[in-house]
Amino acid sequence: MAISLGSDLLYNRQLQSKASEASIDKLSSTISGLSENSTDEELMSACKSFEEYLIEQVVKSTKETLLENNEEKNSKYLSMFSDNLNQHYAKLISDHSNLGIAQMLYDSIKRNGQ
Question: How far apart, in whole angstroms, are the C-alpha atoms of residue 20 and residue 37?
């Protein structure tokens, strides 16, 4: 039984690591795809992607500090889908709040690019 639990935990950690790497790769490709000829919409999209990634990291860190006795690690399904859930929370927060991180980043890039 211990081998089964250990392999499940290892598998879940690998899934979480791959999901996190996928988020970073997506963000990197979006940013590296920008050029001086990029449209304002493409630039704002990249800034929104960065904002979502930043919020996702905050959500993930906050959940880790708030969960008692690592409830998520004890639940097979929560640990498997936690990254997807964190990404969904980040997208919702970014879309429905007025944090303004993407707009500040966009304004800074436009100001420094001219």
Answer: 30
Spatial separation of the C-alpha atoms in residues 113 and 45, rounded to whole Å: 17
More confident residue, 34 or 96: 96
Distances in whole angstroms, Cα of residue 68 to Cα of each of 71, 91, 95, 101, 109: 6, 25, 29, 30, 41
pLDDT tens digits, 28-53: 766 666 766 778 888 888 899 999 99
pTM over the 0.70 mark: no
Burial 13-52 (b: 16+ CB within 10 A, else e): eebbeebbeebeeebeebeeeeeeeeeeeebbbbbbbbbb
